[in-house]
Amino acid sequence: MAEEDTASVEKNISEAFDVKPSVMQQQQEVKQQLSADTYYKYEDLTSRPFVTLGSEIPENLLHLSHSFGYDSRRRENLQLLDDRTLMFIAGNLLVLLDVVTAEHKYLRSCSGGGIGAITVHPSREFFVAAEKGKQPNILVYEYPSLRLYRVLRGGTAQAFSSVQFNHDGSVLASVGGAPDYMLTLWNWRREEVVLRCKAISQEVYRVSFSPYNPGLLTSSGSGHIKFWKIASTFTGLKLQGHVGHFGITPATDIDGYVELPDGKVVSGTEWGNLLLWDGNAIKAEICRRDGRSCHTGAVQPFVLDDGQLMTIGSDGVVRAWDFESINVADGNGDNGRFEVEPMNEMVVGRNVSLSSVVKSPQTDAFIWFAQDSNGAIWKLDLSFTNTTPDPECLFSFHAGAIKGLDVSQKSHLMATTAPDRSVRIFDILSKTEVTTSRFNQGGTALIWAPPLVKESGGLLVTGFEDGVVRVLELYSAQRHHMLSGRNPRGDARLRLLQAFKPHTAAVTALAFDRQGDILASGSSDCTVFFFAVGETYSPIGFVHVPGPVQELQWSPRSHSESTLLVLCQSGHVVEVHSPHPKAQNPTKTFQLLDLLRRSFRFRSIKSRIKREEEITRRKAVKEEEKKEREKRLQETEREEEDEDEELPPIYIPDPPSPLYCGFYSQPGHFWLSMGGFDSGFLYHCKFPEEQDEDLDQVSHEPFDFLSVHDTDDDPVLSVTFSAERQLLLCGTHSGAVRVYPLQPDDPGLSSMRAHWALSVHDNQYGHLRHIRCSHDDCFVLTAGDDGNIFSFSLLPPEELQRSLQSTRAEVPPPRVGLENKVLAQDIEDPAADSIETAKQNLETSRLQREAELKLTAKRKKLAELQRTYKQLLTDNQRLSQHVRLTPEELQLDSCFQEQAELEKSRRILEVRKQLSWEDERSRVALSKIQEWFWDSLEDNAVSVVGVHSDHSVSTYLLQTLTELQTPPDHVTTSTQPDADGDAAAERSRRRGGGAADDSSHTAEEEALRPRAPRPAGIKLGDRQEEKLRKAAEKAEQARAKIEKRKQEWTQLYAEKPDEDYEDPQAARAIRDARENVGDLPLRTETERTVPEHLRTNTERKRAEINVLEKNIRDKQTEMNGRIVALRDTKVRLVSRLQAQAEQLHDVQQRLAVHLRRPPPVLPMVRPEETPERRLQFDSSTLERYRVLREQRLNFIQQEEEEEEEGTTRLLEQLEKERDVQDRGGGGGGGNLHPSLSSGKIEDEEEEEEEELNELEAELHREEEIKLLYEQDSLLEQMERSVRRFDAELLLLRHHKLHLDWQLKTSDLRHITLCQELLLLMEFERRESGLQGALDRLVREEKSIASRVDECDEQLRLKQRDVAKLQERHAAVVAAFHASLGQSGNFEASLVRIFRKNVRRVKTREHRGSHDEDEDSDEDSDEDDDDSGSEENTLQNCDSQLYENTLKLRERRVDVETLLQEEKRRADALKEERDVLVKKQRTVKVSVTAAENDLELIHREKQQKMNELDVVVPLRLHQIEFISDDSLPSDLSEVLVVDRTELDRLQRRIEQLHLEKNQQREARLQVRRDHGRLIHDCRDLKAEIRELEEQCDALMMRKFGRLLDLEALQTLTGNRDLEELKQQKVLQETQWTTEIKEWDVKVEASHDALMEVTKHNTELLARKKNLVDENTELKRKLDTRQKNSGAPFQDHRRRVDQEETRRLQALVKKQSEQAEVIRREIHFLSRKGGHVVALSQAPLPPLPPVSTTTTGHTHTSNHRPVRPFKLVQVHKSHK
C-alpha cells in the first residue's frame, strides 16, 4: 500500500514538474519559451562597481587579484564540482579552487548583496548560487563552461539560506531567511515556481529532499526540524509540513540530518547525541554506553552508506554507526535513550571542528572533503581499512574575523592575525602563504614595523586578547637551517624576540611614532602604554584615556610636534605628546601624570544638519512660491500653514554613537567617522583651547562636516591613504570598498566628491575593518569580519606583470649571529601580571618591608620603656612610706587616662563593629542549636521515683508537633476524562444542532421568506370569525390534552429503569460476594492481582504512617500526662509530709524521749523529677559561679580552647554542687528537727519530775496519752500516704511497661511501613509514568469514543435528512405526475423535459473557470437545441402546464443536489468514523498494554513488599504449627492469622451454605419471572406494531400521506388563509368586470380587423392584376429580345437566372431567420419572458427586394417594427 502511495505521489510530482506547457502557459503569449540551449550573458547580469555619474573614475579601478581567506564558520560552505575542484563562498565572490594546482577562479554575485547558499547538481553539470540582497535571485551556472544557464526570480525577500536539488536534479528547493522564511520548489529549467509556502518563523539552516521518496522533504534550523510532504489535493499539489515535537528532550538547533529509507530521520544535537525521528516525534535519543554522548559537542549525521551511518562532530572525529541498530532503536526508560557503540571512527586532528563534508564523485571512492570550522579543508578516506591513509589538511586559513592586517614597507608581504591564535604571512605576488605561527591566545592587533625600526623590514608587533604584546621577527628559512623550536611550513619563519604584558585586557591598537623610537599600544582597559624601541623594548609609562581604545595614530612628519591621537570607542579623542624615549623608569608606578594631553568629546550634530537642510529646502520652496503668488492667491493661506509645520527635532543619542576611525588633517584638527545615529558624515573636529577636567560632563561639536553618500546605515569603519595621498580608501560596515580621488594638499577633503565603490565582503557580517595599500601602491588589501582577505591591483594584470620584475616577494634574511641568540621567554599564562601590576606589587612589597622594619623598631622601644617603668615601680615600692609616690602621683596627668579611656572605648566599638557579623552568626547558630536540640522537644524528661522502693517511671521524650504535610498526588487526572467527555458532549450537541439546522434549512428558508404583502382593509365576516374562534378553542384543548399525555409519558419513562439497570441490593450483594467469596490468593502468590481499592501508593502509605505516628504520640502523651500528674502528686505529698512532720515534731517536743517514735525519712523531690528548675538560677548561684571561675583563673592559665573547656567543666561542677546541696537538704529533712541532746532533755525531765505533784502528774499522763495518739495518727497517715503513692507508682509502672510493649510493636510496624514507603518511592516514578501514560490513553480513548458517538449521531441525523429529502423528491415526482392529468400527446415530451438534467454553473476563481464557462455555454446551446427540437411537439401544449413542469424540474434538481450533498457528507462522516474506529482499536490495544505493564509493576511491587521481613511477637501457646508433638525449627511455612478472624471464618462457612441454598431458590424464581416478562414484552411490541400499521393505513387513506397527528390536532384556524379567500372572491369579482370590458373591446377590434382584412383583400386583388400584367409584359419583352439577337439574349438570361437564384437564397435565408426568431420567442415565453404569444406574432417581413424591369423598380412598403421589438426582447433576456 505504501509503495502504491509513493508511486502515485511520484506520478503527481512528475506531472506537476513536467516540461510540457500548461493551459495557462499557453495563454501567456508574452512569456518567452526557454529552450535547452538558452543562456544568459553573465557580463550583463553581474554586479558592477558604483561610479559617481559625471566623474572620470574608471569602472575597472581595482582588479581582483586573489582571495586569501575562507569563511569557515558559514554553514555548508564547501561543495565539490569534480574530483579536483572545490567551490565555496567568499563574501560577494564564488571561488572555484583547484585542489592540485591551488588555482582560483572567481564569479561575482549578480545582486551585489552577497551569496547566501550554494549547491551542485547531481550530474555535476550545473551548480547553483543563491544570492542575498533585495529580492535576490538564484543563479544556475553550467559547469565547466561557467556560463549562466538559468535565473530564478522571486524566491524570497532578503536572502536565501539553503538550496538543494532532488535526487534526479529535476526540482530545486530553496529556503529564504528573515523576514519571510519562504520554502519554494522550482522547475528550474523553466524558471518556474511550482510550490511555495512559509517554512517556519525562525532561521532555517538546511532543506533537502528524501533520496528514497521524492514526495518528502526535511528542513531544520534554529530550535526545530520540520517534515514536509508533497500532497495531492483536489486543487493540486500542496506542501504539508509537520514540526517535530521534542517532548521531554530539550530543544536544540539542528544543523544536519539524514533521511532513512523507511521515512525516519536521524538528526544531530548540540550536546552530541543523535535523535531518531519517526513521524514528527522523537522515537529514541541515541547515545553511547553509560550515557556518554556520541560526540563531544555538536554532532551532524551526513550520509547513510553501505549499512553505516556516518557522523561528524565539533570534536574533530568521524564515526560510523550500525544502521540496523539505529533504525530499530527504541528509547527505553524515562529518558528515552538507546545506547549503541560506533563501528568505526577516525580522529581527524586536534583543534578540529568538522561542520560539513562532501563526497568525491568518483565511482566506488571513499574520499571525502571536510570543512573545518577552525579554518581548514581536509581530505578524508573513510574506507576504514587497514590501509586507510591519515587525514590530509589540504588548505589552512584564518578562522573567524580578521582582527589585524598590515603590509611590509619593503616588499609585497602581508601579515594578518585573528582570534584563532595564529599570525600568518602572505606573499601578495605569488598569492601564497609564507609562514604561520600559533600562540596560546587570539590575536587582536598587528603592525609591521617601519624600516626606521628594522632596516630589513622583517619586524612585526602583535597584540593579543590577554593584553600581551609580542615582537616577532620574520626571516628566510632557506638561509638559516639551524633554528630550533617549531617548524612551520613555508620558506620563512617567525621568531619571538620579546613578549611583555602592558595591559590587563585585549590589545586593540599598535602604532610606531614617525621617528621609530616609540611604540604605543592601546587596549580596551582604557590605557595607552609607551615603549622605547631598541634591541629590547623597555616600558616608558602609560596614560589613562576616557574609554576603550579604538585606534592610535601618530602625527605625520608635516606636524611640528610628535603627538599621538588616541581614538576611543566612547567618542572621546585624546592627543598625547610623545614622551621622551630615554626617560628614567619611575620608582612607584608607570603612569605618566605629567604628560601633556588634550581631550575632545564628540557631540552629535547630525539632527541639526538635517534640520538646516530642511530649512534650506523650505526656503527654496518659498522662493518659488513667491514668484507665482499673484497668480495663485489662494495658496497664501497654504504658505502660512507650511510655516507652522514643525521642523525636525534636535536629537542627541544616548548612549553616544560609537567612534569607528579617524585621522589627522592638520595640527590640532582631525576627521572622525562615527557609527550609529551619527553615521553618514565625516566630521571635522579640533581640540578646544580650554580643557575641562571632567570630560563626562562636557562635550564638543565638530566645526565642519562632509556628507558621505549612502552611508546613513552603512558607516565607514576604516580609512587609509595611498602613499602619495592621491586616493582615500574606506571600508564600510556592509563590507564594501570605497575609493575617493583627492587633490594634493587637501586636508579639508574639499575634493572628496566622486567615488568608486564595490561590494567585496559579506554584506551582513563581513564588516570591513582593515584596508591597506602596498608600499608601492600597486595593491589594495582588505580584511573583514567574515574571515576573508582580498587583494586588488590598481593596475591591469598585464601592466602589473610588466611593472613588477619578480613573481615572489622578498623575505628578509636572518640576522647575523641569530643561531647564537637565546629564544625569548614567552608569556603563556593568561592570568600573568601586567607591567604596571608587577610594578605595583613590587612597590607594595617594598612598603610592607619598610613598615615591618618600622614596626619592629617601635616594638623594641616600647618594650624598653615598659622595662624602665617596671623598674621605677619596683624602686618606688622599696622606698619608705613617707617618701613613696602614690599611684595618683605617678600619673603625669589625668587627661592621659581619659584619652586612653576614650581610645579604649573607640577601639572597643571598632572591635564590636568588626565582630558584629561573627556575633550575629554565633547568636543565629545558638538559636538554631536550641531550636534543634531543645525547642524541638515539647517537655523535658520527667522521672518519678518511689518513696520506699527503687521503682521509677519516666516520661517519653516527644518532639514538637509539626504540621504533617502530605505531598500532592502525582497523577490527578480523574476529572480530566469527565471534562473531556463533557467537552465531547458539548461538541456533539453543537454538531447535532448544526445538523438539525442543516436538515431544516429549507424549511427555515420557507418560513423566513418574506410573504407577499396583502392588501390592507380586508375584513372577515362574522361567520368566518366564529369559525376561527372555535378552531382555536379546539386546538387549545387538543394541545392541553397532548401536553398532559406527554407529561404522563415523561413520568413513565423516567420511572423506567435503564437497560443496564441493577438492583442496588443485588449490586451490593455482588460486590460483597466478590470481596469476601471466591478465590482469595495469598499476597505471596506471584500471579495475584491486587484489587484497585486495595492497591497502595506513597500517599496512602504516608497517611498510614502518619496515623500510626499520631496514635503512638497520643498514647505517649496520655502516659506522659499520667506520669506528670503522679509527679505533681508526689510534690504535694512531700509538702503534706513536711507539714505533718512539723506537727509530729511539735507533738514529740511535748512527749518524753522514751515515748517518741522515730519519725519516717521524708521523701525529696529529686532534680530529675523537676527538670524545669535546672535552668533557674539565682544570685547565689551566679556568685558561686564567679567564685569558682576566679579560683580557676588564678591557678590555671591555658589557651582559649582550653579555657572554653574549663568553662564547661565549671558549669558541670556547679550543677553537681546544686544537686548535692538539694540532696543534702532533703536528707536532713528526714528528721526535720534534730533531737536535743539527751543530757539536756533528761535534766529537764528530772526537773519536771521533781517539781510535779500528783494532780499535775495525772494531767501530764492524760496529755501524754493524747500526744501519743496524735503521734501514732500522724505516723500512720504519713505511712499510708507513702504506701498509696508507691502503689500508684507501681501500677503506673506496670501500665507503662505494657504500653512500652505496645509501642515497641508499633515501632516495629513503623519500621515495616517505612521500608514499604521506601520501596513504594522506588516504584513511584515508574508507576506514575505508566499511570500518566495510561491516563492519557484513557482520555484519548474516551475522546475518540465521544467523537465516534458524535459521528454516529451526525450519521443518524444525515440519514434522517436524506430520508426527508427522498420524501421531498418523491413528493415532487408525484406532484409532476399529478399535474400531467389528461395531457395526452404531450405527456412523453413533458416527462423528458422534467427528467432532463440541468447543469448548474459555479463560478471559480481558479484557472478552470474559463473552461467551465465554455462548457456551460455549450450545455446551454445543447439545451436550446433540445428545446427547439421539441418545439413542434409542444406548440399546442398548455403554457401553464409547461411552466409548472419547468418549476417542478427546478425543484427536483434542487432536491437532488441537496440529496447528493447530504450523501457526500454522510460518506465523509463514514470515512471519518472508520478512521476513528481504527484509531480506537489501536488505542485500546495501547491501553491494554499499558494496563498490563502497570499490572506487572504492581505485581513486582507486591512481590518486593512480600520480601520485606515483618516482626510478629508470638507466645508459645499461640503456635499451633506442631510437627511430631514438637515445635519445628523451620517456621517459613507458617501462616500468621488472628484467632478471632479464624473463628469468624469457620462460622462463615456455615452461613455460606445456608445462603447458597437461598440464592439458588431465588435464582430459579427470577429466571421464571424473566421468561414471563420477555413473553409479555414480545406480545406488547407486536400489538403496538399492528396499531401503528392501522394508524398509518388510516392516515394514508384520509390524507394521502403520513402526517404528525399532534400538529394536525393543534392546528388553529388560519386567518391569513381566510383573508386570502376573501381577497380571492373580491379579485374574481373585479376581474369579471374587467373581462366583460375587454370582451367589448375585443369585439370592436374584431370588427376593425374585418374592415382591414377587406381592404387588404382588395389590395391583393389589385396586386394580382398587376402581377398578371407584369407577366404579360415580360413575355412580350422576351419575345422581342429573342428577335433582337442571340448574344444579347443569352447574356440577359444569365443575368435573370443569377438574380433569381439570389432572390431565392435571400428568401430562404429570411425564412430561416424568421424560424429562429420564432423559436427564440417560444423559448423565452417558456422561461417567463413577457412577449407576444406565438399565435399573435406576425412573421418577419422580407427585406426590400429590387427587381429589374424596363423602366420600373418595385420595393416593399411594409415596415418591420414588431420583429425588431422581439429581437430586442430576446437580447435583453440573453
Keywords:
alpha+beta, 1774 residues
Question: Can you walk me through this structure?
Answer:
By secondary structure, the chain is an alpha+beta fold. It has 28 helices and 60 strands.
Low-pLDDT windows of residues: 19-31, 482-489, 635-643, 963-981, 988-1017, 1197-1205, 1225-1249, 1402-1425, 1727-1774
Shape: flat
Number of beta-strand segments: 60
**Span of the ends, CA to CA:** 53 Å
User: What is the structural class?
Assistant: alpha+beta
Strand order of the largest sheet: 1-55-54-53-52
- Percent of residues in helices comes to 40-55%
User: What's the alpha carbon Rg, rounded to whole Å?
Assistant: 59 Å
Number of helices: 28
Mean pLDDT: 81
Largest sheet: 5 strands, antiparallel
Give the percentage of residues in beta strands. Answer: 15-25%
Give the arrangement of secondary structure elements.
Blueprint: H1 2-16, H2 23-27, H3 42-45, E1 50-51, E2 63-67, E3 79-80, E4 85-90, E5 93-98, E6 104-108, E7 115-120, E8 126-131, E9 138-142, E10 148-152, E11 160-165, E12 172-176, E13 182-187, E14 192-198, E15 204-209, E16 216-221, E17 224-233, E18 236-243, E19 257-259, E20 265-267, E21 274-278, E22 281-287, E23 299-305, E24 308-313, E25 317-322, H4 323-327, E26 337-339, E27 344-347, E28 354-359, E29 367-372, E30 376-381, E31 392-396, E32 404-407, E33 413-418, E34 422-427, E35 432-438, E36 443-448, E37 459-464, E38 469-476, E39 492-500, E40 507-512, E41 518-523, E42 527-532, E43 538-544, E44 549-554, E45 563-568, E46 572-577, E47 597-601, H5 606-627, H6 635-643, E48 659-666, E49 669-674, E50 681-686, E51 704-707, E52 716-721, E53 727-732, E54 736-741, E55 756-759, E56 768-773, E57 779-784, E58 789-793, H7 797-803, H8 835-878, H9 887-890, H10 894-914, H11 916-933, E59 943-945, E60 952-954, H12 975-999, H13 1001-1008, H14 1022-1055, H15 1064-1076, H16 1098-1149, H17 1179-1195, H18 1200-1228, H19 1238-1251, H20 1254-1380, ...
Parallel strand pairs: 22-26
Antiparallel strand pairs: 1-55, 2-58, 3-4, 4-5, 5-6, 7-8, 8-9, 9-10, 11-12, 12-13, 13-14, 15-16, 16-17, 17-18, 19-20, 20-21, 21-22, 23-24, 24-25, 25-27, 28-29, 29-30, 30-31, 32-33, 33-34, 34-35, 36-37, 37-38, 38-39, 40-41, 41-42, 42-43, 44-45, 45-46, 46-47, 48-49, 49-50, 50-51, 52-53, 53-54, ...
Helix pairs in contact: 10-11, 12-20, 16-20, 17-18, 20-23, 21-23, 27-28
